[in-house]
Each structure stands twice: as C-alpha cells, then as structure tokens.
Amino acid sequence: MKKYTKEDILESIKQVTSMIQKIHAIDTKKLQKAQQTLLKNRLLALQISLELLKEKSKELNK
Predict the structure, then answer these.
(1) Is residue 39 in a domain?
(2) Quick check: is 1 in a domain?
(3) Per-residue pLDDT reduced to its tens digit, 6-54
(4) Is 45 helix (H, G, I), strand (E, B) or coil?
(5) 16 CB-contact burial (10 Å; exposed 0-12 / middle 13-18 / buried 19+)
(6) Is residue 12 domain-resident?
(7) Residue 45 belongs to what domain range?
(8) Which of 41, 43, 35 has its CA nearest to residue 19?
(9) 43 vs 62, higher pLDDT
C-alpha cells in the first residue's frame, strides 16, 4: 500500500466529512427509490472511509 503523509490523511478527512455533510443536506424525498438506495450506500461507504482515515490519523500521531 502506498505511504500517505499525515497531511494527506488530514485533508482526506476534511474532504470526506464535507461530502457526508452535503449528502445529509439532500432532500431524499425528491429522489427516486433507486437514487435513494444509491445515496444510502454511498453514505455508508463514506462513513466507513472516514472511520478508517481517523484510525490511520491516530496511528500517525503515535
């Protein structure tokens, strides 16, 4: 796996957090069922990514 700098990880955390916030701001009632499901799955993937990035950030702080 490629080595990422602490700065890379921190910037990624900010970007993923921003994407999650933007998804939460979407009015899903206006979306079709397939789009709602896709958005839900993407949100889950982003939340998992954010958790992993935060864990990696903690490792780099040791």
Answers:
(1) yes
(2) no
(3) 999 999 999 999 999 999 999 999 999 999 999 999 999 999 999 999 9
(4) helix
(5) buried
(6) yes
(7) 6-61
(8) 43
(9) 43
